[in-house]
Amino acid sequence: MTDGRALVTGLMREGGLYCLTAEPFSLGRSNAEVVRAMLDAGVRLIQYREKRKKAGEMLRECRELRAMTRAAGAALIVNDHIDLALLAEADGVHVGQDDLPVEAVRRLTGPGVAIGLSTHGPEQARAAVAAGADCIGVGPLFATQTKEDVCAPVGLDYLDFVVREIDLPFAAIGGVKAHNLPQVLAHGARTVCLVTEIVGAPDIGARIAELATILRAPR
Questions:
Q1: What are the structural domains, with CATH classification, of the chain?
Q2: How far is the first Cα of the chain from the last one, in angstroms, to the nearest whole number?
Q3: pLDDT at 139 over 80
Q4: How many CA atoms does the CB half-sphere of 46 hold within 13 Å?
Q5: Tens digits of per-residue pLDDT, 21-68?
Q6: Of the candidates 121, 106, 117, which has an alpha carbon nearest to the alpha carbon of residue 168?
Q7: 54 is an active site residue
Q8: Active site residue: 118, 164, 207, 216, which one?
């Protein structure tokens, strides 16, 4: 079995797009349709994040996406639901500050599953390192409407801190769009999450190609 922990952290250090599902913003398309378009466009980091579905439906979707990502050599991370991540044999699980602590998640997952943790400031980033998180989310950098109960934007100063002080792979997230992506990259981000910018695009492949051009641009 693939070491999901190594796959996720390796891809995050390599850099690129880290894509999340968000079916309410996907223009009526299913998560499978959206993820297929992401994978066909070359994305290799996929997170399943759904908040309003029944457990059985989420497990069915996770297993479908697991088969798709495995065939593409991509990583699947499940947001919040450790049970779904394990049942679907996902490569990683991502939790928030109010979810189970990293140490407890590790007891459930064992050593082969990557654990990501959302962070919103320097103290939380340092705590993530101490707790044994494999990677962190850094944000929200800008205002975002995608996630409910989200904290205020943390701004680029926190991104600067993580780049300078934290030796964990990380994803910059929260309100990142094509127009501010160059600014985020200029501050040192390598792996970036754009949610509605991608899932809400009429042509997901074309949008990812556009963003990939920005990612490859000299800085």
A1: 4-216 (3.20.20.70)
A2: 38
A3: yes
A4: 33
A5: 999 999 999 999 999 999 999 999 999 999 889 999 999 999 999 999
A6: 117
A7: no
A8: 118
- H or E element, residue 20: strand 16-20
Beta bridge partner(s), residue 137:
118, 171
Q: Is 53 a catalytic residue?
A: no
Q: How far apart, in whole angstroms, are the C-alpha atoms of residue 29 and residue 65?
A: 14
The pTM (predicted TM-score) of the whole model is 0.95
Catalytic residue among 44, 49, 66, 207: 49
Q: Which of 147, 164, 190, 219 is catalytic?
A: 147
Tell me the two tokens of residue 44.
């290799």
Look up tokens 């943790």; give the residue.
Answer: 117
Is 26 tagged catalytic? no
Q: What confidence tens digit (pLDDT) does each residue in 87-121 have? A: 999 999 999 999 999 999 999 999 999 999 999 99
CB atoms within 10 A of CB 120: 20
Contact 89, 67 (CB under 8 A): no
